[in-house]
TrEMBL record:
Annotated Gene Ontology cellular component terms: extracellular region; vacuole
Protein keywords: Carboxypeptidase, Disulfide bond, Glycoprotein, Hydrolase, Protease, Secreted, Signal
InterPro entries with a match to the protein in the record: AB_hydrolase_fold (IPR029058), Peptidase_S10 (IPR001563), Ser_caboxypep_ser_AS (IPR018202)
Family label: Belongs to the peptidase S10 family.
Enzyme Commission designation: 3.4.16.-
Function summary: Probable carboxypeptidase.
Record-given protein name: Carboxypeptidase
Upper lineage: Eukaryota, Viridiplantae, Streptophyta, Embryophyta, Tracheophyta
GO biological process terms held by the UniProt record: proteolysis
Length: 465
């Protein structure tokens, strides 16, 4: 047979296999398509949700929810969103409480007018296994879970998810998240870059992390100055909180089950002065925050006074909605080994000491690799205060020899100041969001959307209205 004919046949075979693969993928994604969520208003975009099995042997599966862009989804990027905890739901917190297209209200869903799927195809992942609807058939899979396991699982998820949705393979990909996602996001991005050296699968265009845990001591010890500068604690208590027992020492002792009498004394006084009627995740808010925002409370525990109870609101719309059987059926979701969907996992045993391992160095490696990084902070959050994040970003810029390209200045959303920003080189940026809490898109949705749009476009935040 002539050589040219052989090549032609080989090419035809490859094209046939590719076509069959595409048909197979289309069938897989169609099975995950959401016809309509209960109580949902009519929309013009597609939604998908379901499972990606990351370990066939142990039947470990991660649950995802995809809200495609409202308009022209083919031309818009793919954005992966990860919530923190560790062990809290990106579906319940991110999608249904922060930047997704809907928010539960009683028995129905209402449109979020500042949904991020106006600008991108939004992919929400409940990770690690044991969080939300994600599950494993063996309970041992929930034990000893750590950052390394989570990052690897998230990488495998994306690899297999692209088999379901090959149309997104060459699309610009951004990874975003908040709180403990200051660990999840950089660690996943690092693995993606390493994987790309051999396989070139991921078209990673940038990461954005909000109020992130990046360096244990700097992030948590900035809490004392934040409390003091906002009038939440007295001068003597501020002195104790920065000398006798700082917050990183308390957390370290707490996670090891041996809180010293000195730290107990200091934190007790801090608690008395700040008051249990002030929410540490938004110090200006004078109403309760729904428990869907409890991701923060996992990474930042509070010493409880004897007999104290915490009221996290009598009604939680998201928890009620996601525990409806008709909703779970519409989402193609299953409850395995548990009777109830929860915001933060009560079956996951996560290695809490991983919080002490810095990720700011990984952020630096991403910047050096040319991956744009945005660190943003809600300025009313005292859990991971803006002062710590700003210090870490500035220090990193100096270590990398990056010059300031956008001096510290205000940025605008509408006709109001949206916050402050500073940019180093063309790959590292810091921004605050004025009036925002730990969960920025929940507390300042309009300003968060302006921030998100500028990040995707690689543009500086608006300096005039």
């Amino acid at each position: 047979m002539p050589r040219l004919q052989c090549l032609t046949m080989a090419t035809s075979l490859i094209l046939l296999l590719q076509a069959l693969s595409l048909v197979s993928s289309t069938i897989l994604s169609r099975a995950d398509r959401i016809t309509r969520l209960p109580g949902q208003p009519r929309v013009g975009f597609q939604q998908y949700s379901g499972y990606v099995t990351i370990d066939e042997k142990k039947q470990r599966a991660l649950f995802y929810y995809l809200a495609e862009a409202e308009t022209k989804p083919i031309s818009k990027p793919l954005v992966l969103w990860l919530n923190g905890g560790p062990g809290c739901s990106s579906l319940g917190v991110g999608a249904f409480s922060e930047n997704g297209p809907f928010r539960p209200k009683g028995s129905i869903l209402v449109r979020n007018q500042h949904s991020w799927n106006q600008e991108a195809n939004m992919l929400y992942l409940e990770t690690p296994v044991g969080v939300g609807f994600s599950y494993a058939n063996e309970s041992s899979s929930y034990e000893g879970v750590n950052d390394k396991i989570t990052a690897k699982d998230n990488l495998v998820f994306l690899q297999k998810w692209f088999l379901k949705f090959p149309q997104y393979l060459n699309r610009s990909l951004f990874i975003t998240g908040e709180s403990y996602a200051g660990h999840y996001v950089p660690q996943l991005a690092q693995l993606m870059i390493q994987y790309n050296k051999k396989h070139n699968l991921f078209n990673l265009k940038g990461i954005a992390i909000g109020n992130p845990v990046m360096e244990f001591a700097t992030d948590f010890n900035s809490r004392a100055e934040y409390f003091w500068s906002h009038g939440l604690i007295s001068d003597p208590t501020y002195k104790l909180f920065t000398s006798s027992c700082n917050y990183s020492r308390f957390l370290s002792e707490y996670h090891r089950g041996s809180v010293s009498s000195m730290c107990t004394k200091v934190l007790s006084q801090v608690g008395i002065e700040t008051s249990r009627f002030i929410d540490k995740y938004d110090v200006t808010l004078d109403v309760c925050i729904p428990s869907v925002l409890s991701q923060s409370k996992v990474v930042s525990p509070q010493p409880q006074q004897v007999g104290e109870t915490v009221d996290v609101c009598l009604e939680d719309e998201t928890v009620n909605y996601l525990n409806r059987r008709d909703v779970q059926k519409a989402l193609h979701a299953r409850l395995v080994g548990t009777r109830k969907w929860t915001v933060c996992s009560d079956v996951l045993d996560y290695e809490v000491l991983d919080v002490e391992v810095p990720t700011i160095n990984i952020v630096g490696s991403l910047v050096k690799a040319g991956v744009p990084v945005l660190v943003y902070s809600g300025d009313q959050d005292s859990v991971i205060p803006l002062t710590g994040s700003r210090t870490l970003v500035k220090r990193l810029a100096e270590e990398l020899g990056l010059r300031t390209t956008v001096p510290y200045r205000v940025w605008f959303a509408g006709q109001q100041v949206g916050g402050w920003t500073q940019v180093y080189g063309n790959t590292l940026a810091f921004a605050t969001v004025r009036g925002a809490a730990h969960e920025v898109p929940f507390s300042q949705p309009a300003r968060a959307l302006v921030l998100f749009k500028a990040f995707l476009g690689g543009r500086p935040l608006p300096e005039e209205f």
